[in-house]
Amino acid sequence: MSADLNFARLRSDGAASIRTRAAIPPTVLMSLLVVLVVVLWSLFPSVFTGYSPVNGDTGSKLDSPSLQHWFGTDYLGRDQYARVVYGTASSVTSALVAVAIGLVAGSAIGLASGFRGGWLDATLGRFVDVLLAIPGFLLAVVIVSSLGFQTINAAIATGVSAVAVFARLMRAEVIRVRRSTFVEASYLEGGNRLQALLTHVLPNAYRPVLVLAVLQFGTSILVIASLAFLGYGDPPPSSDWGLLVASGKTYVTAPWLVYAPALVIVATVLSINRISRWLRNPS
Amino acid sequence: MSSGYGRFALARAGQAAVVVLLAYVLTFLVISVLPGDAITNSLRDPQSGLSEADIQRIVSYYGLDQPVLVQLALSLGRFLTGELGFSLQSNLAVSQIVGDALPSTLTLASTALFIAVAFAVAIAYGAHYAPPRWAGILRCIPSFFLSVPNFVIGLVLIELFAFRLHSFTTTDPNSATATLFAAVTLAIPVSAPLAEVLIAGLDHESRQEYALVARSRGLTGAQLFARHLVKPSALPSVAMIALIVGELLGGSVITETIFGRDGIGTVVQKAVTGEDQPVLQAVVSLSAVVFVAVNLAADLLTPLLDPRVNVREAANA
Amino acid sequence: MPESHVPPLLAVDGLHVSYGRKEVVRDVGFRLDRGGSLALIGESGSGKSTIAKAVLRLLQPSEASVTGSVRLDGKEVLAVPERQFRPLRGRQLGFIPQDPGSALNPVRTIGAQAHEAAALTGERDPGARRRMILEALEQVGLPDPVRVFDSYPHQLSGGMLQRVLIALTVLPRPSLIVADEPTSALDVTVQKLILDLLGDLRKELDIGLLLITHDLAIAAERTETLVVLKDGAVQEQGPSAQVFAAPRTDYARELQADVPALNPGRYRSQRLDVALKEPRDVPQEFPQESATADRPVQVSVTGITKRFQTRGKEVRAVDGVSFAVERGRTHALVGESGSGKTTAVRLLLGLEQPDSGTIAVGGQSTAGLSRAGIRDVRRHLQLVYQNPFISLDPTWRVGRIVREPLDRFGVGTTADRADQVRDALQSVGLPADVVDRRPGQLSGGQRQRVAIARALVVRPDVVVLDEPTSALDVTVQAGILELLARLQRELGLAYVFVSHDLALVRQVADTVSVLRSGQVVEQGTVDQVFDQPRHPYTRALLDAIPGTTGLQSPTGTAPDIQETPKLAEASL
């Protein structure tokens, strides 16, 4: 449940092919719908629920799911659906922050490493080896413990632990493209290295990295939820998805408190994985 | 070949040692330089129950009154001689804490590794040789496994098998059955990428012309799989083994917490909440040692397993 | 073909194959007698390989649906369950694949895989099987069978691997061998040796041969019956000599006409000197080249040498190579893999620096030039790559690809550039609307035209053509070669033409250098080198051209290439 293995997964699929315009398969359509709902939840939570995520109705504690309370209520009588919906923004934003950090830092390292080669490649390569040597989740735990227990710090930690994977993929892609015949042809036409990098190498190398970013978005949701589950995110009354599962697990008689947010996490990540697979291999 | 291989092995081992040292330095810097806290904060915590003399002793042991680089040199020097320092919470030697927790985690992780490999091979074989309908379903399983957080897997297994079916009790987390379920929890997210790589390997190899030629020689599907396809499709996963071990170490933090096991993961968990930095530093560095060692083993094994790999080229890679 | 009581070895009737909804083989039928030989010939997409795989039942039922009838010795084999068909595999039906480099499992030794073939003879004793394998390896002319037995595939050359595959295929004494382009991945001299070997073994062991090939010359020379395919359907079939000498269908005629080895005058007639006799072919806007005017030397290469270090050993990839090309002329560099022709081109283009020797373009030496100077030289020296599938950026549109040299060299205004791109595309015979397409939407021939347009757009003096047609089908090749001849005629271009195909070189070049192991072994005008080859290697190369032995060209005169003694050593 960390970024480290995503590199092997992507490489095993080979380079991403140029997307051709084809009909979108129904499972992908459904996945896009799920992601759309999640995005809308995080942008306009109050549109989707009339309940407050913070103040509960003390008369209805630990109610099982019903038409009034789709996901039931918790030990303070708060609507669990409302807590999930209001927790979405923080869960999604932090995953985005994590991906952005990994993508930007990792791509920069991989690009420099793969394009410049030589001593720079050797130095950056060793740095990436070191990042990779510390198991991803442990690295995230160490960083978040050093920065302090907040969701934003969990996001930063998750992002840093994914830098190595982005760097390795970007480097591999850049080297693949850099050696291709059409780049050599561009040099022959009087192009310089910077022009080749910007006009040929990047446009041909970025796709697989973008696919990794989508895949990594799902992984980040899982890692951040795990950190929140361990209590390394924002404390209650915030309602990060991982935290909801963690606080729900104490109430053995009310399993919906665990299953409802868990199901939301699974549906979201599954949809993102499906979309990423479709982008890799559109069929 | 032998002298070439010797040189290759030596070069790789040298790189591995450098990586371990740098990983130690990186961890140290993250723990002590990043904002948030230095060791002294937790020492001054009135709840720590340490006397002023204790504090002075610890401060001088870690060189806390000196610049960070001196602390780093001190700490790194001790690490190289095998000294891991003392816990700030319990005053016990870190080596003892780790030593006590290690057997439990080793049992858990090795069982999980076994299960993960078994799952992955079964899924990959099925995805390739089962009737199309089943194969299609099996191909979706890795993606599903990768979408479920492993704390959810753990909670579901406990709910189902401990609370409803009474296969094990959470009060005895070290029983064989409880260990097995904990291992399954840990194994599921690890088996998925392995299965994906195996499936892709089998897909790739069975499309190669040599597979066609072998079939034209009258080999059955099973013979083709066993004699021709297994080895080349499994080779890419050898390179993954270190990542998998790392994943098992990271995943043990959550799995052990959920199943109430006392292991390395729990040690990490406690060290984080108690801001017990020497313990955290030691566990993370040792994980890096394990990762790098397994990676080195895989690297050294690859030229022996794959005749195409040229050690001379690999040494310079 | 008279039907007898004995059923033919292989009888195919009404064969249809579709991948999904796409039908790739339509109503194909042919007969092959015991010990006979038949060639399926066609270009890419003709369905020839699919037919071979359908006969061998190597198509996965999940991806291809096969209907019709395939009878082996009179017994229907298409419909029988796999369980009953499997015993025929290897024992009755042998298969030799296209690329020997990928036809053996890379992580197992040759010996381990040979045991699979030897087991088909029914021999159970491993020792006896090993002896059998070593004998077979020796039979196909491999010098050290024990070493080959213990080797991994990557340790052997392509020619050796194809011998291994032939040995393993004939080992169980099949009655039919299906060979799918068995030599198209090999050098021309090796190709001849392999085809000779296959022919000898066939006669000796009375094996029927179904040969799949794109090369009409090979097919006509090596088989008794020809089946010409196009778009999955049979165009024409009959005895080789008949189909070859007097093709009845247009397609077969076109195919026949486009093979350089069979038609020595095909492209020669379109070249400058010949064309000048008919001035109306030359458009007015280009200054007419006079055959007697003095021709400035555009490229002059003198004694260039390039050394590489591999595995501690020094290899001279190019060793003292010299040649010169005049305006409006074509000089060919000919050689097989490892001959140094690719390195010579890279040196000429400045992609590598020679260790010694000088290169002058347009009379100006490139040695010691500044960066700007080299840029200027490059503008006059353009390259067309071998493979248009990898030489064009797949993310760019054609217009931008052709415009790139103008942008890089800063030629003209934006409007000028658009005009020049349009002119260049027009001159290579592409419609104007291709500017908005990407390479992925074009065919191989169209892509190569784009590559040529791109080379021409900066008005170079010299164009280096690195095997410009070897990735293309023969009819597409014809179009490209005609285009190149016309452009040379119109623009007075000097060509450096790199090729392994001597039959082609003879027609398109004025002068030629034959390269072997980095050295020029023979040099001169095309007529000198081809008519009076002095070096044994040149003779071996000429001898290996398919279609030059035992065949009459349709006009009745055989290509005047002398019978030369075979090379004593196999150049594997």
UniProtKB/TrEMBL annotation, chain A:
Ranges for domain ABC transmembrane type-1 = 88-276
Q: Which domain of life is it from?
A: Bacteria
Query: Main localization of the protein?
Result: membrane
> SUPFAM superfamilies annotated for this entry?
MetI-like
Instruction: State the annotated membrane topology for this chain.
Output: Multi-pass membrane protein
Membrane-spanning residues = 21-44, 95-115, 127-146, 152-170, 209-232, 252-272
An annotated GO cellular component of this protein is: plasma membrane
Keyword Membrane belongs to the record: yes
Q: Return one Gene Ontology term, BP aspect.
A: transmembrane transport
Keyword annotations of the record: Cell membrane, Membrane, Transmembrane, Transmembrane helix, Transport
Where is the protein localized? Cell membrane
User: Do you know which PANTHER family this protein is assigned to?
Assistant: D,D-DIPEPTIDE TRANSPORT SYSTEM PERMEASE PROTEIN DDPC-RELATED (PTHR43386:SF1), OLIGOPEPTIDE TRANSPORT SYSTEM PERMEASE PROTEIN APPC (PTHR43386)
Write out the similarity annotation: Belongs to the binding-protein-dependent transport system permease family.
Record-given protein name: Peptide ABC transporter permease
Q: Which organism is it from?
A: Pseudarthrobacter enclensis
From TrEMBL, chain B:
Q: Which family does it belong to?
A: Belongs to the binding-protein-dependent transport system permease family.
Give the location in the cell: Cell membrane
Q: Read off the SUPFAM superfamilies from this record.
A: MetI-like
Which membrane topology term applies here? Multi-pass membrane protein
- Entry's Pfam families? BPD_transp_1
UniProt keyword terms in alphabetical order? Cell membrane, Membrane, Transmembrane, Transmembrane helix, Transport
What's a GO biological-process term for it?
Answer: transmembrane transport
Principal location class? membrane
Provide a GO CC annotation, any one.
plasma membrane
Transmembrane stretches, start-end? 12-34, 106-125, 137-158, 178-202, 237-259, 279-298
Q: What is this protein called?
A: ABC transporter permease
* Superkingdom of source: Bacteria
The record places domain ABC transmembrane type-1 at: 102-302
